[in-house]
Amino acid sequence: EAQVTQNPRYLITVTGKKLTVTCSQNMNHEYMSWYRQDPGLGLRQIYYSMNVEVTDKGDVPEGYKVSRKEKRNFPLILESPSPNQTSLYFCASSSSLSGTGLEKLFFGSGTQLSVL
Amino acid sequence: AQSVAQPEDQVNVAEGNPLTVKCTYSVSGNPYLFWYVQYPNRGLQFLLKYITGDNLVKGSYGFEAEFNKSQTSFHLKKPSALVSDSALYFCAVEKYNFNKFYFGSGTKLNVKP
């Protein structure tokens, strides 16, 4: 089954304690991206990657890191989490078609992060 | 600045009635337009996409969307709402060749029996 898998589903941590949210897709997609969802703000892009070893900042990258060492994995790293990073996080992937831009996004089920 | 607006936080409709969820955008060029739906405790799911051509696009679960270039709008519609359509709906715009999606703030659709 084609899917984007995020882990963990729920995460409670304390300020300053490094954490990683994993994301994996089995569709051989070139494009992967991280979003955070906050009430009234919709989804905002944190980082995206067009392929292995190619990453770029989205609209709200501060406080986050990513890496793309393999095509299927795109982990989100919070080196020193702060309470304002409490949010619902989604990983998404898409195929990239020459001449027509990106195809539709496939989303993971989300990670609810609480930073105390 | 690029932006996507969903002017209604919530839309209430009776089952069997037509529904409209509104979306307007301000993105330069000829962007691609999407609608996604989010059910509780789930990720977003693709409903439909407009690239070019016919202004009326048909998608999943009986939904359709009407593109209006002069009004830069892309409203989601369904002729007859179901209670199971109750969910959070997001309009999204992809700026071609910029590898970025811009999302609206979401509209909660409540369909009452």
Key descriptive features of the protein:
heterodimer, A: 116 residues, mainly beta, 7-stranded mixed sheet, 4-stranded antiparallel sheet, 13 strands, globular, B: 113 residues, 6-stranded mixed sheet, 54% strand
What layout of secondary structure does this protein have?
The complex is a heterodimer of chains A (116) and B (113).
Chain A: E1 4-7, E2 10-13, E3 19-25, E4 31-38, E5 42-51, E6 54-57, E7 65-66, E8 76-78, E9 87-94, E10 96-97, E11 101-102, E12 106-107, E13 111-115
Parallel strand pairs in A: 2-13
Antiparallel strand pairs in A: 1-3, 3-8, 4-5, 4-9, 5-6, 7-8, 9-12, 9-13, 10-11
Chain B: E1 3-5, E2 10-14, E3 19-21, E4 24-26, E5 32-38, E6 44-50, E7 56-58, E8 64-68, E9 73-78, E10 87-95, E11 100-103, E12 107-112
Parallel strand pairs in B: 2-12
Antiparallel strand pairs in B: 1-4, 3-9, 5-6, 5-10, 7-8, 8-9, 10-11, 10-12
Briefly say what this structure is:
The complex is a heterodimer of chains A (116) and B (113). With 116 residues, chain A is an all-beta fold. Chain A is 0% helix and 53% strand.
Describe this structure in words.
The complex is a heterodimer of chains A (116) and B (113). Chain A is mainly beta and 116 residues long. Chain A contains no helices and 13 strands. In chain A, strands 2, 4, 5, 6, 9, 12 and 13 form a seven-stranded mixed sheet that branches. In chain A, strand 4 and strand 5 form a beta hairpin. Chain A is globular, with a radius of gyration of 14 Å. Chain B contains no helices and twelve strands. Helix content of chain B is 0%, strand content 54%. In chain B, the strands form three sheets. In chain B, strands 2, 5, 6, 10, 11 and 12 form a six-stranded mixed sheet that branches. A four-stranded antiparallel sheet of chain B has the order 3-9-8-7, with no helix packed on it. Chain B is an all-beta fold and 113 residues long. Chains A and B meet through strand 4, strand 5, strand 11 and strand 12 of A and strand 5, strand 6, strand 10 and strand 11 of B.
